[in-house]
Specification:
globular; 3 helices; 5-stranded mixed β-sheet
């Protein structure tokens, strides 16, 4: 299955050279690893990865890319500050987080996303 068929997807818009992104992304990756070890269905998505419906892919996107599809996605979500994290459930409203999240906020966001995937 593709990412588009997952029940919930977490998009993280960031870019190289962004101080807030540089601080945020390593902590985000660490929390993904801790969540996986605790049995939660989070996975750091990479190109062409197969994702089951109950898996929560975390997709980190380089907002500086010149890829027209990625720029259209940035425009669609009105990305103006970095990092920006968006939890996109298949049904319901997305939740947007502008800026680097605290560790507690990352844990809460992941818990909410995982509950949407069940």
């Amino acid at each position: 299955m593709s990412v588009a068929q997952a029940k919930v997807v977490i998009l993280v818009f960031a870019m190289p050279g962004c101080p807030a992104c540089h601080e945020y992304l390593p902590r985000l990756y660490q929390h993904i690893d801790m969540a996986q070890k605790a049995g939660n269905p989070l996975v750091l998505y990479s190109d062409n990865m197969i994702v089951g419906r109950d898996i929560v892919p975390v997709v980190v996107l380089n907002s500086q890319s010149t890829d027209p599809q990625l720029q259209a996605l940035c425009d669609q979500h009105n990305i103006t500050a970095l990092p920006t994290t968006i939890v996109l459930p298949r049904w319901g409203m997305p939740t947007r987080y502008d800026g680097a999240l605290s560790d507690a906020d990352i844990r809460d966001m992941f818990a909410n996303a995982c509950s949407l995937a069940r």
